[in-house]
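[agent] plan:
  1. take the single chain provided in the ticket
  2. run structure prediction with default settings
  3. attach structure tokens to the ticket
  4. add a short note for the reviewer (M.T.)
[agent] executing step 1
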Amino acid sequence: MNKQVVEAEGKQVLPYLAQRFQQLYLKPEPEGNPLYRSVVLAGEDAPSQDLSHFVMDERDSCVLLDTPAGSVRAVTLHHRSDFETALNCIAMKTRVTEIPATQGASILDGVISWPKIKAHEEEYRKTADDWDEEFGRFTKDKKNYTEALILLSYGPYSAVKPEAVGYEPEAWNRYSDLIRRYHECTHFVCRRLFPDQIHAIWDELAADAAGILAAFGSYDRAMAEVFLGIEGEHYTKGRLENYVEDKDPEKLNQLAKEVHGILLNIEKLLKENTVSDVFETVILLEEHQKEFLKDTSLAQTA
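[agent] step 2 finished; step 3 output follows
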């Protein structure tokens, strides 16, 4: 299985993150917190380490994952309000913004990391003193001074009730957390390594497969179909319709039939190729994307 390190747990998660991303100390305001520019763009310390705008929870977690596309930090916040506030602080640059209730995760790839900048400065000054010039050179490449962060909310994955998949509520929430984490990590890997193969529906099928594998150790096609709202070759209402503009029932049924066939191919591929690492599985799936889509209407948008 892939490498991961638990960096913080419980009510220490947000304080830990705020040390790296000090905008979390800034309470979001309608027009944005006036300290945003000095703290985030200029690297000044926030005037206080106040996090009272967060609730925090003993079940929060922060995990650093090592992926083929680089490291990414995945943070699960149990209180919905904390998830939304963190997004406002980081993604919305401390502006109060309404987060859609349907959004349960967000990939923030390219967050300014002053710890990375300051660590490089400290090392550089050991042998040279032209830091201002080096700062200009160093910051020309965003990879040098940014980090990737995945923010996750907590609760049933894909809004699927526990009885629909045969688990008790708390157990299903725990599995859901793992599925959601690796689902988003899959998007992170695919966007970086396979930018020419981005495909709305296929990406969801591959990401669900990785999430299920991470949570349960093997792929469960029936569970993947429950997430999407597919029963056999019919659409029964679920996530699938989120990825198409035309929601005509007949077209959704035809799409469900095609997706069912793709999932059968994924199931066969993963049974024939025993891969223990989640991200190796992702790469395996991406290698078969065109093959699995070629005889479907989805090939036209691949």
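[agent] step 4 note for reviewer: The chain has two domains: 1-154, 159-302.
[agent] ticket updated
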